[in-house]
Amino acid sequence: MELITTFLDFLLHVDKYLEIFVTNNGTWVYALLFAIIFIETGLVVMPFLPGDSLLFVVGAMCGIGLMSLPLSMGLLWLAAVLGNQSNYAIGRYFGPKVFQWEDSKYFNKKAFNQAHDFYEKYGGITIVAARFMPFVRTFAPFVAGVAQMNRAKFTFYDITGGALWVVGIITIGYFFGNIPFVKAHLDKIIWAMILLPGLIIMYGAWKSRSK
User: What pTM did the predictor assign?
Assistant: First the structure.
């Protein structure tokens, strides 16, 4: 319980924790941020790390000169791209081994073919859109790998989506993160960044089932 409380406190006050880290450790903050973004996007078992809010706060810190805007954007974009590539590779390698293909009672050939067809047809927009959805962005590249999505196509949308996500949210934080109203209500903004995409996904799933 204490661990959960600590994590929630970090999640809702990531600006304060990050500022303290920068003050005490200087440029090591870039290594820490690279690791967090890479792990969130690269390991399917770590979907709960604060990617969106972290990028927003990084932008705000760049806005007051505590961090470099070009370096933050470039480094975290690289972390996001490499993270997705890692997750895709894990799914592509372990998916067939876990299911053991047709020899396993857990493998559904029809479901696999449907997933493969879906990612070949809609995989691009899925990879890009998932960047802006907590939890989903961790699982989407893994599923793309399991579904054997074309590697070149995946990489193109991985690079594109990573740029839109990292550069977009850091830029928003850079221009709006230090406005007094935003700083005073940052915890509520972070909750909105977490919950709203989830509600949209749930509504879409409900609407799809109802059809």
Answer: 0.81
Check residue 164 and give its pLDDT: 95
- Exposure string of 186-201, with b = 16+ CB inside 10 Å and e = fewer, is beebbeebbeebeeee
Amino acid identity of residue 38, one-letter, is F
pLDDT in tens, 95-114: 766 655 555 555 556 666 66
Do 169 and 162 contact (CB within 8 A), yes or no? no
- Give, to the nearest 10 degrees, the angle between helix 14-25 and helix 28-42: 140
Secondary element (H or E) of residue 1: none
What lies within 8 Å, CB to CB, of 132 at 6+ separation is 52, 165, 197
How large a percentage of the chain has pLDDT more than 90?
A: 31
